[in-house]
Amino acid sequence: MHKRTALRHLAAAGLASSLPLAFQSTAFAQAKPFKIGFILPMTGQSASTGRQIEAAAKLYLAQNGATVAGRKIELIIKDDAGVADATRRIAQELVVSDKVDVLAGFGLTPLALATAPIATQSKTPMVVTAAATSIVTEQSPYIVRTSFTLPQVTLGIAEWASKNQIKRAVTLVADYAPGIDAEKTFKDRFKLNGGEVIGEIRSPLRNPDFAPFLQKVRDLSPDAVFVFLPSGQGAAFMKQFAERGLDKSGIRLICTGDVTDDDQLNDMGDVALNIVSSHHYSASHPSAVNKKFVEAFQAANKFRPNFMAVAGYDGMRVITKALEATKGAGGGDALLAAMKGQVFESPRGPVLIDAQTRDIVQDVYIRRVARVNGQLFNEEFDVQKAVKDPGKTK
Ligand code: DHB
Prior knowledge:
Elements: H1 3-13, H2 21-31, E1 34-40, H3 47-64, E2 67-68, E3 71-79, H4 84-96, E4 102-105, H5 109-122, E5 126-128, E6 143-145, H6 150-162, E7 168-174, H7 177-192, E8 196-203, H8 211-220, E9 224-228, H9 234-243, E10 252-256, H10 265-268, E11 276-279, H11 288-300, H12 307-325, H13 332-339, E12 343-346, E13 349-353, E14 360-372, E15 375-387
Helix pairs in contact: 3-12, 4-5, 6-7, 12-13
The structure holds 3,4-dihydroxybenzoic acid.
The site of 3,4-dihydroxybenzoic acid (DHB) has 11 residues, from loops.
């Protein structure tokens, strides 16, 4: 029989189309790679956030295998340099041209806000592994967050301050949404506990020079200054804090763990010793899961994982377990449903993705910087269990 005739016979027999439709589409879907489009600041002043999250996502795949429920996981990493217009454009390209199954990353709050409408319109799950303003998850029903919120991690240090002879405080925060969240949370709780906030200072997000703000803190002479700055600014701040002699002024520095960031902490030197902060992750968190995570991360990279890395790692967990739950079929709504309510042990401790808010519920630790085996770490000494974001408006 002629080859072409044979093919025509096969077609006439309807071999392919005789398969049940559902089976055909599943077989086709499972052959396709499962694409996760990470949009991260790989350059610019938040580049450490991108570097940490990329390294952690790759580590997760290296440890758990790059094929999940028959689908090969494909990571697409794009640099938005921390600029919202770029994030929006890249998100559009990833959805329309690359047809990604999930969007992930978002190093700063404005970058997450710029992308939320695209996630909603395209019904693409958007896993936020950094941006930490409370309202982020309320901007789209397709957003799930594996990082933290500023109100969630600020309550702990506000409580600690009230119990530790701090009566008059000044707040100093980066002048954008997460800074405003931290400022409000600190002020409300500290005042509720009988403290007084005698000054509220905001420093610009871009290229801040802290000198004039530190001078203002000095002039106000509080018992303590509470600080929030985004990841990447802590070391420059500490340097100026020491240069201006504030470490010897009797004014205590207290902060969220974004300032005593594991990415930079070890280079800050003795000026960082004894700083008390509250946060959801420390590289020295004493659990077996974390020890394994930190060892593997440091074996694969030349740096220590920080709270951005752990959120990227857990983001990959949430995404791939959701894919598994859909037996490899994926689909925006099915994935999202399978992300909600996940409970697991993260390197940071036990976590839950709250099914109602799609935000993370986690332990928040009170820590003190100490030198351990020659290196600086945030040593946890107290914990608030299972903290839900207290900053939600509904
Ligand atoms: C945000 C960014 C950070 O680097 C951080 O440490 C906390 C919050 C943000 O933009 O939401």
